[in-house]
């Protein structure tokens, strides 16, 4: 089974399904989203869409309204296509620890979702994930996915590794191969047994090749659609891995085992 480890709700959702079909992807992890870059038709409209994320990261705007809208869109997509989408749920990171724990129980476990994410802490504040990992541990080791590209910093990656070490039963998945800090991300994940790297939007193919070489059982094929493309992401993995067990693990085997669906 080919599983894309990183996708966001598209508007319309049928656009996403066509991309998955074209890439030969069976299922994809689906995250809610506030910006919808796929709606953009030019640079000004893209800036408008991305401003929703900028406002959230800076603490501006109505966070509750943004989360409610993203949650509704995610629920609708999951209900319409349960055979293709594997739902993950986000939680606010600016809440007290007890409220984060309650949100994980209510908005992730209570909705029958498979994990937590994608979480995007403000730069330099990855420590906010501590109560999330603790809650994930309390619910049997739910996978937690955190944004790895900017605004996540090199220091944040070190913090994430430290947090993962405190909760060794929780799979912590760093998206986008840690962005421009991909070498540090590989080193940190190599030394942290419950830390995984998702390979979408890597800036150079060599980064994907080396990540898989160093972490053959803890690297995950992902596209980050609509920011990335499932076909191109799959082709990149296949370009740097020979046919066989290793490629199968990266393209879905490892994630399927983590989620208990293989």
TrEMBL record:
Ranges where the Amidohydrolase-related domain occurs: 3-229
Q: Which domain of life is it from?
A: Bacteria
Protein name, UniProt field: Amidohydrolase family protein
